[in-house]
Design goal:
With 362 residues, the chain is of the alpha/beta class. It is 33% helix and 15% strand. It is flat.
Length: 362
């Protein structure tokens, strides 16, 4: 077969090289396409012609196309009329709403005590979970079974972020044969008793630095810890980096605008105390009751939409999403709408978000 430099193919190519440059873009494209076809090369991609640059108007203003109607400018010397003889600006005669001015309600210790007395017989969380070692171990087993039923954990290399006492990590290893790892910013005493050949613990903040290799875990799980993370996006990025391609992250988080986000439902019985009362008021109430002044639990202010946005930004695929919701107490909401009305109603009843995120195989 003739090479590209001899025979009819070479002649065509040499001829195309000597063609005078066409004057229009269509002819240029056609000539180059024929050259590439004859030479057996992939057709070269053609850039679109550059968009015309808007010319500056008088005064240096560049008006970009917007799709809005073109409105001719009004004459500079046009005379504008002003209202005359008006008095009392800013003085209200009547209003349908008082939302936004704080109303006459004072959100102090006295009101907190009053509301707590009202809700003592109908607490937001009637049976708070126990913190005993036995109860925590049993709860850990239920949690592990729950996650396993959704994402499959048996035999996987797993990481629990915010592992606390470590009972879930131990259960993963001993009940499901996992190479189980747990990480927390606090070293808990049970770690020293639970750790073993397949049970591993690290005291670290993954949003700052990680002791693990990238792409090394099949599954990551986290139970109501993300709301306490100071840098939640950085933590989610660390999760993405640690997962193997195709790996799954099972994350349950308490949402800030939900009724239980103060984490004080064991002794504050009404909903949304963290939205109504400052930490200073709750600490003063603690002292008045003879307790250590702890205020509300520190919870970041992420909504469910922030989690979805962060997941999308990092390249996660959302495999599952669900919420645990508490119906709005309408009478309570109406009483304190001046504060609660600042939040979307859907957010006010969403206590917990559950997301399963998949790292793509690419």
């Amino acid at each position: 077969m003739s090479s590209s430099g001899t025979g009819w193919r070479g002649a065509v190519i040499r001829g195309l090289r000597t063609l005078p440059e066409p004057r229009d873009e269509a002819a240029i494209r056609m000539a180059i396409a024929v050259r590439d076809l004859v030479a057996g090369r992939e057709p070269a991609p053609f850039a679109r012609p550059p968009k015309p640059v808007p010319r500056p108007e008088p005064g240096g203003l560049i008006r970009k196309p917007t799709g809005l109607p073109v409105v001719p400018p009004l004459p500079e010397d046009r005379e504008w009329q002003l209202p005359q003889g008006i008095t009392g600006s800013g003085r209200t005669v009547s209003s349908l709403y008082t939302t936004g001015d704080g109303g006459s309600q004072v959100y102090d210790v006295a009101l907190l005590e009053k509301l707590n007395a009202e809700y003592q017989d109908k607490p937001l969380v009637p049976s708070p979970p126990s913190y005993s070692d036995t109860a925590l171990a049993a709860a850990a087993q239920r949690r592990v079974r729950w996650v396993d039923g959704m994402v499959g954990l048996a035999g996987k290399r797993t990481l629990e972020i915010g592992c606390g006492n470590g009972f879930e990590v131990w259960s993963l290893a001993h009940n499901l044969g996992c190479d189980a790892h747990g990480v927390d910013v606090t070293h808990y005493r049970p770690w020293d008793q639970l750790q073993g050949d397949r049970v591993h613990f690290e005291c670290a903040d993954l949003s700052v630095a990680t002791p693990y290799e990238a792409n090394s875990f099949d599954r990551v799980l986290s139970f109501t810890v993300w709301e306490h993370v100071t840098h939640p996006y950085a933590m989610l990025k660390a999760t993405y980096d640690l997962l193997k391609p195709g790996g799954l992250a099972w994350i349950r988080a308490n949402l800030y605008a939900g009724p239980q986000a103060s984490h004080r439902y064991r002794d504050i019985f009404f909903p949304w105390p963290h939205l109504l009362f400052t930490d200073e008021v709750v600490r003063a109430w603690d002292v008045q009751r003879g307790r250590k002044p702890i205020g509300h639990a520190w919870v970041n202010r992420l909504s469910w939409l922030h989690y979805e946005y962060y997941a999308d930004l990092l390249g996660f695929e959302v495999a599952h999403r669900a919420y645990t919701e508490t119906p709005i107490d309408e009478e309570f909401y109406t009483r304190f709408e001046d504060v609660l009305g600042r939040y979307p109603r859907a957010d006010l009843q969403r206590d917990y978000l559950l997301m399963v995120l998949r790292k793509p195989l690419r």
